[in-house]
Specification:
alpha+beta, 7 strands, about 300 residues
Length: about 300
C-alpha cells in the first residue's frame, strides 16, 4: 500500500457547505471512519475500488476553495470523487417547495446539496446494522465491526484513529457468534454476508436510476425499502429516496407540514406530488430542525449494549 500524499484544490461554483454535505456520510458521532480535527478539517477513511484511502477536506470559503488531500492506493480515485461527494452532481432546479414551510426552509438553506459517494457497500453495511434498532445500538455495533475486522486508514490514519470498513471478503469470514458479540442478530448478519457475496454486482448499481438500483438491491433477503433508501441517499445522492419505515421520518414530516404526525402510507400519499424529488422534503425539514416534540414514546434501547469501544 502506498502512503504517498496527493492533493487537489477544487473551486465549486456555489458556496459549498462542506461540513454539512460531507456529514451526510457520518454514522453517528463515534463513527471510526469519520473524524473532524481541531482545525475543522474533515477526515474520512474510505474503501475505494482501487483500495483504501484517507481523505482530508478543508473548506476555505473566503477563497471559494476546498483543499483535498488523500493517501493510500485509492487516493487518486478519492480525489476525483470529491466534487460528487460534496454535491456537485445535485440539481435542485426541478424542486418546487409548494408548502410555505418548505419555501421558508429553502430560503434559509439555498445552497443545500445532496452528496454521493458511488460506493454501495460502504452505505449498505451500516444501514443493515441500523435496521430496527436504536441509533445507540446500531452505532456501537458498527464501531465494533470496523475496529475488529476493518483496518487503519493509510497515511496519517493511525494517528487520527481513523479506520476503513472491512472488505467483502472480511465480512464473509466473520463467524456467526462474533456477529452476536457485536449485537448484530442473525437476520442482519445474514443480510450483510449475503450482500458481501455479491458485492461487485451491487457496486455496479451505482450507475443505475434509483428505482432500478433499489429493485436489484432489495432482491437480496433482509434488505427492504428503508435500507435501500438509506443507500440511495448516500451512495447515489438520489433526491427521490425517502426512508419509509423509519421510526421518526413520517411522523416528523406530517407534524411539520400539517400539524399531525403521518403514518408511512399518509406520507407516501402526501409526498407523491413531489416525485421524483420526494426526498428533498424530509431533507429540507431536517436542515430546518423541524421535528415533532420528543415527549412521547420513543424506541427503547435494549439493555445489553456493550460499553463504548475504546480501542485505538
Amino acid at each position: 500500500m502506498t502512503a504517498e500524499l496527493l492533493r487537489r484544490t477544487w473551486r465549486p461554483d456555489w458556496p459549498c457547505q462542506v461540513a454539512s454535505v460531507a456529514g451526510q456520510q457520518r454514522r453517528g458521532r463515534g463513527d471510526p471512519t469519520y473524524r473532524v480535527d481541531d482545525a475543522g478539517r474533515i477526515w474520512r477513511g474510505v474503501r475505494t475500488p482501487l483500495g483504501p484511502a484517507t481523505l482530508s477536506l478543508e473548506s476555505r470559503p473566503a477563497h471559494g476553495e476546498v483543499h483535498a488531500r488523500a493517501w493510500g492506493d485509492g487516493a487518486e480515485w478519492m480525489l476525483e470523487a470529491v466534487p460528487a461527494l460534496l454535491g456537485a452532481d445535485d440539481d435542485w432546479s426541478a424542486f418546487e417547495p409548494r408548502h410555505p414551510v418548505l419555501v421558508e426552509a429553502r430560503r434559509r438553506h439555498p445552497h443545500a446539496r445532496l452528496g454521493r459517494t458511488g460506493l454501495v457497500m460502504e452505505s449498505l453495511v451500516p444501514s443493515i446494522i441500523e435496521q430496527k434498532v436504536t441509533g445507540q445500538e446500531a452505532f456501537a455495533g458498527f464501531r465494533m465491526l470496523v475496529h475488529r475486522y476493518g483496518e487503519r486508514a493509510p497515511g496519517p490514519g493511525p494517528d487520527l484513529r481513523l479506520w476503513v470498513q472491512p472488505t467483502p471478503e472480511q465480512l464473509r469470514s466473520v463467524p456467526s457468534w462474533e456477529w452476536l458479540k457485536m449485537h448484530v442478530d442473525h437476520a442482519r448478519s445474514r443480510a450483510i454476508v449475503t450482500a458481501a457475496r455479491v458485492a461487485e454486482s451491487l457496486e455496479r448499481t451505482a450507475t443505475l436510476p434509483g428505482e432500478e438500483a433499489e429493485k436489484r438491491i432489495s432482491s437480496l433477503p433482509g434488505i427492504g425499502v428503508w435500507t435501500c433508501a438509506e443507500v440511495r441517499q448516500r451512495a447515489f445522492g438520489d433526491p427521490d429516496a425517502v426512508s419509509f419505515g423509519d421510526y421518526h421520518v413520517a411522523k416528523d414530516v406530517g407534524w411539520a407540514l400539517t400539524g399531525t404526525p403521518f403514518t408511512d402510507e399518509e406520507m407516501a400519499d402526501y409526498l407523491e406530488p413531489w416525485r421524483p424529488q420526494r426526498g428533498r422534503v424530509p431533507t429540507l425539514l431536517g436542515l430546518a430542525g423541524l421535528h415533532r416534540p420528543r415527549h412521547g414514546a420513543r424506541m427503547a434501547p435494549r439493555t445489553h449494549l456493550p460499553a463504548r469501544v475504546t480501542r485505538t
